[in-house]
Amino acid sequence: MCDREKRAILARATRNRPFSDVMLTRTLPIVVAACALVVCLTANSAPTGEKALKEAFAALLETLTNAEQEITDSPAFGTDAEQAGGYRHLLRALMKGIEAEVLQDADYPYFRILDFWLKEGGDNPDQRYAFSPVRGGASYRVWGTLGSATRVELQLYAGRPWDGTGTSVGYLNFEEIPIADDGAFEIWLTPDKRPGAWLANPPEATTVFARHVYATWDDAAAAEIHIDRVGFEGRRKPAETSLELADRIGAATNMFHTTAANWPNFVQQRYVGSRPANAVIAPIDTYRFGGARGRWLSSGHFDLADDQVLVIRMPKTAAPYQAIQLTDMWYASLEHGNQVSSLTTEQSVLAPDGAYYYVVSTSDPGYPNWLDTGGLHRGVHILRWDGLGETLSEPQWPTAKLLARTDLETHIPGYHEVTPAQREADRAARRRHLQRRANR
What we know:
The chain has 440 residues and is α+β, with helices and mostly antiparallel strands. It folds into three domains: 2-45, no CATH class; 106-229, Sandwich (Jelly Rolls), CATH 2.60.120; 275-437, Jelly Rolls (Sandwich), CATH 2.60.120. Helices cover 32% and strands 24% of the residues. The chain has seven helices and 18 strands. It has helices at residues 2-14, 21-45, 48-73, 80-103, 242-272, 408-411, 420-437; strands at residues 112-114, 127-133, 140-145, 151-158, 167-172, 184-190, 197-200, 207-213, 224-229, 284-285, 296-303, 308-315, 321-327, 342-344, 355-361, 370-372, 378-386, 399-404. The protein has a five-stranded antiparallel beta sheet with strand order 1-2-8-4-5, with no helix packed on it. Strand 4 (151-158) and strand 5 form a beta hairpin. The longest helix has 31 residues, at 242-272.
């Protein structure tokens, strides 16, 4: 802090005054010494909290500048659309850090929602993600309604498994959560076992994570979820001190930078740098990596010219939920309220051979199961299966094939097309559903 103030004072002292090189050489040490004494004495006399706030905010600004450089240096920072996506990714990461570390409180908790406003980490358009900090070993009550969702799940984390610095320490799948006739549910997070839906809250726990999963996008009532720390309901929240806020700003800075840097690096290392384009991998068990139990995932990355299409074949399975989506190179879901960039099997046409064929392309190919890239030529595709108790057998694995658009009709059994009016109706229905489900 002193060095920056010294430079500012020196600049003001010499502004608009003609200094020769000799005069500046002789005068500079005196000015610097005087400035150092004045500024450092002033800093030392300032309240500790004020100094901490200024330093924390300065560190945030410096980190923001450094993160911007990392984003613009990324291989994902290519076309104009990708550059805009990079800056959106940067701003969303900042918003996430502020919400999670500055605004949220483990003693007076509310769920933070990851939805179409704050996209990251291959977020699934069919899911509404809810996060809250918790104190390990404390008692919490989570309650809500299922609404029109297909499933609800709850998971406890220690640290941050999504960036490799934590692990899953507890999980309740949908089948383990009693749902009342009116859709209501209640889950207890406590250190000691108790009746009802219960999840142990061990000392190392830091975050509770809930997912509502929507296999059908309709106009019915959306799900709800809430959280209270037991014994703190109605207790007056104490005022925050400057030192406490400075600590929170520091935590937000760390989370912001981790989020901003992690996901483009993840796409580059896990997808672009290690796999061929326009292919899919065998499904993997995501629970091993901090995901949901019983969830399997396959993925790949596409790289398309305007006259090409990527056709992904996904056989029908017994999974209660099965779906596919697209993301950009920053690993954020594509626009999905006014654009069909994701589909569940309930929303898809099944071909006569018992499989779903999805067409990834930059413009409408006519086939019902079109995944709209929004004009992007590069991105990621993710396939999910939920509620499976066993490994998917090889005949149920997805496959992918890159084709010329003119060859599409001969590749898909039972090929047919939809009208532009039907596309508009589908987009309108999706938008209406999101307005009910995720509007803040």
